[in-house]
C-alpha cells in the first residue's frame, strides 16, 4: 500500500456526486411503532393536521395530515441537531428552528445557528451562525405583538465531562444565556443586566398578555448559586432573580410553562443538581405562581425524572385551562387542579422532551420514541410517527450474509432492530441498542444493551439469550465487541480490558491489562481481517493500543486523542496487511483521518482539505491498490482513491446528520451507512473501472 502523498488537493467528481443514497429506515420500527428521539415540537394554531417535529439529530419534519406522512425539511442545512421550534404567532408560515440539542447528554450535539423559514418550511436561511455555533438553542419565544422581536435561550453543549458533545468546536465556550433580536433574527444582543452571562439558559417564555414580561430559567445542570428563574418586565432591559418560595439550593435544570388563559400564572419543574458524572438529577419539585413570580407555592408532582432530570425536563399548561398542567421527564405527570393532585399519564414510550397543543386542543408529546398525541389529556395515546425516520444508530451495525435486506442496528433507547425489507425493521432486543455482530454463515447473531456484560446471542433466528457471564469492569455505556472474521467462534469484548471467548460468547477470559489511564473504558475494537491475531483497541480516554499475538502483549501506539465517551467504529484495517490501519477522529480541529503502515508506530495525516467536522468511521474497498477509503463524518460520506491527495463527497442527498458507521459490501455492490439521527442508508458501490474513468 502506498503511503500518503505530501501534495493535497480537492476534487468533486461529477460521477461521485451523482451517486444517490437510499433511505433504509427504520421509519418507524414496526413493533412499536417507534422512531427516534424528538426534541422539539410546534403545532399550527389553525390547522389541527399541521405539525412540525424536530429530531434530536434528525432535523425538522412537517406533517400536513396529522402524522400519517412526514417530510424532512432541513437535510441540507449545516446540522440536523435541533433543540427548539417556534412559529410566528402572527404568521404561522414563519418558522424558527434552533440548532443544537440542549439536553446535556454525550450525544446532545452542538448547534450551528438559528434556522428561519418564511414559507412553512420549504426554504430556509441560517441566521446568527457565528453568534450561536458550538452551543445549543434551548428555546425560542416570538413577541405576539411585534414578531420582529424574538428571544433565544442558549445552553452549553452536553456531555460528561462537560461540553464533550461539542466535539471541540471553537464556539463551545462562547457566551450563554438569553439573547434578543429586534429584526426578525438578523442580529442578536446578549441580555446581561441582571442575568448571569456564563450560565446556560434552559427555557424562555413570554407572558401572552404582556410580552414585555419575560421569564427565563438559568443555570448549570451541576448546580450553581445563581441557578433559578429570572424575570424581566421591560422587554429584557433588566432582570431580577425570583424567590418567594422557589428553592435556593440544590437546583439543576428548570422547565417553565406560562398559562395563556390566566395572566400571571407560571409553573416551574425543577430537577436536582447532578454530579459531574451525571449521577443524581432526580425531581426536586414543582412550583406555581399566580402573581407573576412574586410568590411561589410548592405543588409536589412526585418524581418523574428518574435520576436524569438534566436530560428530561419539560412542562406545559393547557392553552384553554390554566389548571391543567403536565410535567415531563422519564414519565409524564398530570394535574387537573393547578398542582393540588397528580396522576401519571405517560405516552407509550418513555423519556419525554417536548410538548405542544394542536389546533384541536390535543396534547402532543415528543419523546425518545417519536411523536404521540392524546385527545383526552393523556388518558390514552396514539402514535403519529407515520413514516418519521429520525432514529439514532450507534456504531456497530452488521449485514446479514445471506439475507440481502437483513441488517442489525443498535438504536438509542429503541433497542436492537433487524431490517426486514424496505424501511421495515423489527426490534429484537430492548434497552439502548449498541454494537451488533453476526457470523459469516448467518446462523449466529449477537446484540447488547447498555452496561457491562449485557451481551446476548441468537441462534438460527431464535430468542436472544444472555452470554455475558464472566465479564466485569468499566464500560463506555455500550461496550464494543467483534467477531473474528476467520474463526466465528472467537470473539472479543471491551471493558477497561479486552475479553476473549472461544465459544461464540460462552465463557470469557481477559487477554489484556487495563488499556486506559485508570478510569476510562475501551470504546472501539477491531480484528485485522487477514490476521486476527492483530487486534486494535481505542479507549475513551484517548489511547490506541495494539496486539499482534492475540492478546499476549499489547503496545500503546498513540495517546491524547480527543474523543467522546461512548462506542465508536473508527478503525479500518487492511485485509492484505494487518499492519495497515486507518483511524477516524471525531473532533473539530486537527486530523480527521490518520493512517499507519506499521501497526501504529508511525501515523500520517490524510485529511487534506476535508471539511473541519468530526469524522466517526472509516471503511475500505480493497479491490484496488491503494484501497478506496470511505470516511463517515458529521457532513456526509467522503472518499479518497489516493490516500488523501483528493477527496470527494459521495452523493448529494445524504442528510447532514452524523454518519457513525460504514460497511463496504462488495458482494452486493453497495455501501451501507448508519447515521445518528436519520437511520440507515445505502448507495451503489462503484466498480474499479468506473472509478478509474471518472
Verbal overview:
With 694 residues, the chain is mainly β. It folds into two domains: 27-383, 7 Propeller (Methylamine Dehydrogenase, Chain H); 398-692, YVTN repeat-like/Quinoprotein amine dehydrogenase (Methylamine Dehydrogenase, Chain H, 7 Propeller), CATH 2.130.10.10. The protein has three helices and 56 strands. The strands form 14 sheets. The chain has a four-stranded antiparallel sheet, with no helix packed on it. It has a four-stranded antiparallel sheet with strand order 2-3-4-5, with no helix packed on it. A four-stranded antiparallel sheet has the order 6-7-8-9, with no helix packed on it. A hairpin with a 2-residue loop joins strand 51 (628-633) and strand 52 (636-640). It is globular and about 70 Å long.
How are the SSEs placed, and which strands pair?
Elements: H1 14-18, E1 21-25, E2 38-43, E3 51-55, E4 59-63, E5 71-72, E6 82-88, E7 91-99, E8 114-117, E9 125-127, H2 129-132, E10 136-142, E11 150-155, E12 177-181, E13 189-190, E14 200-206, E15 214-219, E16 228-232, E17 240-241, E18 251-258, E19 266-272, E20 283-289, E21 297-298, E22 314-317, E23 325-328, E24 332-335, E25 343-344, E26 352-357, E27 363-367, E28 370-374, E29 382-383, E30 398-399, E31 407-411, E32 415-421, E33 424-429, E34 437-438, E35 444-448, E36 455-459, E37 465-466, E38 481-483, E39 491-494, E40 498-501, E41 509-510, E42 522-527, E43 535-539, E44 544-547, E45 555-558, E46 571-573, E47 581-584, E48 593-596, E49 604-605, E50 615-621, E51 628-633, E52 636-640, E53 648-649, E54 659-665, E55 670-675, E56 680-684, H3 688-692
Antiparallel strand pairs: 1-56, 2-3, 3-4, 4-5, 6-7, 7-8, 8-9, 10-11, 11-12, 12-13, 14-15, 15-16, 16-17, 18-19, 19-20, 20-21, 22-23, 23-24, 24-25, 26-27, 27-28, 28-29, 30-31, 31-32, 32-33, 34-35, 35-36, 36-37, 38-39, 39-40, 40-41, 42-43, 43-44, 44-45, 46-47, 47-48, 48-49, 50-51, 51-52, 52-53, ...
